[in-house]
User: Fold these one by one.
Assistant:
Number 1:
Amino acid sequence: MSVPIITVAQMREWEKATWASSQTEAEVIRRVGKRIAKRARKLTGSGDSILILAGKGNNGNDAKAAGEFIDDRQVEIFNVASPETDITLLHELLHRKVALIIDGLFGIGLNRPLDEHWQKLISVVNASRVPVLAVDAPSGLNCDTGLPEGAAIEAALTLTVGAPKKGMLAQSAWPYVGRLEVTEDVGLVPCPLSSEMNWIQANDFEQFPPRRAEAGHKGLYGHLAILAGSMGYHGASVLASRAAQRAQPGLITLYTQEPVYHVVASQLQAVMAGIFAPEMKFPESTTAILMGPGMHGPGVADAMKKTVQRIWRDWPAPVVVDASALDLLAAGVLPKGPRVITPHPGEAARMLNSTSRQVQADRLHALRELSKRFGNCWVVLKGNQTLVGTKEGDVYVNSSGNPYMAQGGSGDVLSGYIGGLLAQPVLQSDIAKILRFAVWQHGATADALQEKNKIWVVEDLAAQLGNEG
C-alpha cells in the first residue's frame, strides 16, 4: 500500500512505537542491512568492489550490517571516526577500482551544519564519481528542509527506511537523493501515521485493473475519442493512440487535422480515424475524451479553442486535457463531469501565470492551485516524482520512472494511456486509482526498458506500456 510521506519527528514516533512493541533495534538493523545488501548486489556484478562508509550511529550500523549479506563481492568497511585524519585513507581506498559506495555516515537526524572537515570528506566522495547507495538518507542532507547542511552526498540511489521523509521530495534535495526507494518489511510496526502526501508503491495495484468477465465484449469497455495532431506534430496523435490501445478500451477514434489525416490514418489499424471539425458531434458510445497531443500547428488553437472549452464545460463523461489544449482552457468553469489535466511544469506555470521555477519550488501548492482554478479537476503534475491529486485531500507521489523518459512524446504516451483507462466504465468509479496506476505504470515501464537496454525510444515505451506489475 502507499505510505505517508513524513517528517523526521514522525519517523522517531514510529520507531518508539516499534521499540515499545518488544521489537529490538538489533533485529531492525539486521533486516535493513539485508535489504541494503540485496540492492547493492543488484547494482554491482560478481567480483566487484564495494566500499562501505560507516559513521558512529545506527545509520553506520545499518551499512555495516549490509556487509554480512553481500557475497561474491569484495567488501571493504571503513569506519569513519575523524574526517580530518581519515580523509587520507579515503583517498587511498577510492584509488582502487570501486564499483559502489554505500553511504552510512549520517542518518535522517542531522540538523546542524557539518564542519569543514566533514564537508571536505563528502566532497572527496562526490568527486570520485563512484555511484553511491545512500542508507536512509544522503549524508549531510537535512531531511526536513531538503537542504544540505554545508555539504551532502550526491547519491545515485537513496534507500530510505519505512517511508520517505518530507525534505527528500524537495527540488533542492533531488541532486543528493537521486532515485528514491523505500524499504519496508524491516520489522517496524504497521505505520501509525498519516499525511496529505503519499508515496505510490507497486503493491498498490494488486488485482488492478480487475480481471474481465469471460463473456465480456468491446461494448462494455468504453469508447475513447482523441482530438490530437497537426502539421508537423502528427506523431503525437499516433503515440497517444497507441498508448491508449495499451489500456485496452473497447474502441478508440482519433480525430485529427485534415492536412495530416492521411499520414496519421495510415499508421493506425485498430484505431479508427476521422477529421476534426469545430462543431463535430461524438458518437453516443463515447465514454471519455482526450484533447491536446500535437495540437501545435498554425491556426490550430483558434480552430480548437471553442471546441475544447465546450467539451471541458459540458461533456458529462471524463475528459483529459494535455499539451497545447491546456492553454485553451478557461479558469473558473465548473465542468459537468470528471476532468483531468496533465501539465508539465512549464505548462503549469503558464496556467498559473507563474514561472517553472516557482512551480518546482512548491509542487504541492501548484497542484492545489491548478485544481482550484480549473473546476476542482484532477491534476497530474508531471516531472520527477509526478504528483496526482486535487484541490484538497490526499496527493500521491509517483515512485517510478527515470531521467531517460525526458524525450519528446513521453507525455503523449501518458495522456493516451490515461484516456484509455478512463474510457472504461468498469474503472470510472475510482479515478484516483486510475491516475495513480497510469503514472506508476508509465514510469515502471521506462524503468524496465532502461534495465534491459542501453538505448530505448518513446515508441518502445508505447509498445511495452502496461506489462509491469
Number 2:
Amino acid sequence: MATAILDTSALLTGIPAGAWVAISEKLNKVLAWGADPQEVLVEARGKGEDSPLITRVPDRQSMAMFF
C-alpha cells in the first residue's frame, strides 16, 4: 500500500470544530461534513466516492499541544 500525504488545512477552513468530514483523495475536496461519521460516509458514497478519507476537525485547544 502506498503512503499518501494530504494537507487538509485549506480544505477544512470554515468547517466547525468537532465535525466529521469526508474528503476525496483523488479530487482533493470535501464531499460532506456533519456530526455523524456514518452519515458523512453515506453522503460521500452517494457522490460516487467509494473510499473517502474520513476525519474529524480538531478544536484549537487540542491542536495547541502540537504547536
